[in-house]
Amino acid sequence: METDQDIVNAVLANRPGAFARLLGRYQRMVWHIIVRMVHHPDDADELAQETFLQVHRTLAQFRFESALSTWIGQVAFSIARRFLARKRLPIDAAPGGDDDDPLDQLADDIDLEQAFSDAELFQHVARALDGLSPLHRTVLTLFHLDEVPIEDIARITDTPVGPVKSCLFRGRARLRAELQDEAGVTA
Predict the structure, then answer these.
(1) Which one, out of 90, 91, 141, 173, has a CA that is 20 to 30 A from the CA of 2?
(2) Is residue 125 part of a domain?
(3) Could you list the residue range(s) of the whole structural domain that residue 34 is in?
């Protein structure tokens, strides 16, 4: 298994395919960070490209004071934050959301009743996440879906650990309340 140090050294030495390996390793994480922030896949694609251009331009400055994934995540978060600022959208404002048809999530060979139930649950969770601010949505999904440690989330978002924990707590509370309302459950 090639280490991050190996990949960075290979990219800096201009070895063929080295940057493609770096891209392959971190492309998913970058896209997820950005799409959670800007909430539009087309914008996320463009900003992910911008992120990797920035990574390529500044990789020689990376000193391994943090994990490479954390540093690349910081670049992605910063680019998404600047995009939101240009659009005059605050990072802590909750967005409006477009609802996709749950049936779009289904494959041809799947149990329709079970799949519809799963897709419906997915829609509830997606709508609840959509109601959160970009920062809350990003912190929650980095922690729970990508299993990024709180300290790394703090570095990625350039936010102290305490406020990240608070954001995680409040985001969970809002998500829980939204899902309970959606399900008709009283707390």
Answers:
(1) 141
(2) no
(3) 4-96+131-183
At residue 151, the 3 state secondary structure works out as helix
Whether the CA torsion 157, 160, 164, 167 is positive or negative: it is: negative
Interval 13-50: pLDDT, tens? 999 999 999 999 999 899 989 988 888 888 999 999 99
Neighbouring C-beta atoms of residue 152, cutoff 10 Å: 19
> Token pair of 39, please?
């909430």
- Pairwise CA distance, residues 114 & 112, whole Å: 6
Residue 114: inside a domain: no
The kind and range of the H/E element at 183 are helix 161-183
Is-above-0.85 flag for pTM? no
- Pick the more confident residue, 120 or 64: 64
| Separation between Cα atoms, residue 156 and residue 73, nearest integer Å | 5
* 3 state SS for 47-114: HHHHHHHHHHHHHHHCCCCCCHHHHHHHHHHHHHHHHHHHCCCCCCCCCCCCCCCHHHHCCCCCCHHH
To which residue do tokens 């707390």 refer?
A: 187
CATH of the domain at 152: 1.10.1740.10
